[in-house]
Recover the amino acids of this structure.
């Protein structure tokens, strides 16, 4: 979270609190209270505005069995099993 905050400050990007590294908690909380479309506050013009410091969960897309790349890209080797991904996230808590 500190890295995202610093990156936002340096790059003059509005900061949104994420429950790092797992969920963008405030975003999800706000979303549940409204009927707004699901869009991450850091998604700007189709790109991640905090890409170098994006949360771990974002880095897992395309690398975990239950999170395949939505564009159909595949990785060399094998996808991470869900249990391995949960173990990794638990280690980062
Ligand atoms: S990768 Fe996507 S979901 Fe994750 S912070 Fe960036 S814009 Fe948001």
């Amino acid at each position: 979270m500190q890295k995202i905050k610093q990156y936002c400050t340096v790059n003059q990007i509005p900061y949104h609190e994420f429950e790092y590294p797992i969920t963008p908690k405030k975003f999800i909380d706000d979303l549940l209270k409204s009927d707004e479309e699901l869009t991450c506050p850091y998604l700007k013009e189709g790109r991640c505005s905090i890409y170098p410091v994006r949360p771990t969960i974002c880095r897992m897309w395309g690398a975990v069995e239950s999170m395949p790349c939505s564009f159909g890209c595949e990785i060399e080797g094998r996808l991470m099993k869900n249990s391995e991904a949960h173990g990794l996230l638990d280690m980062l808590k």
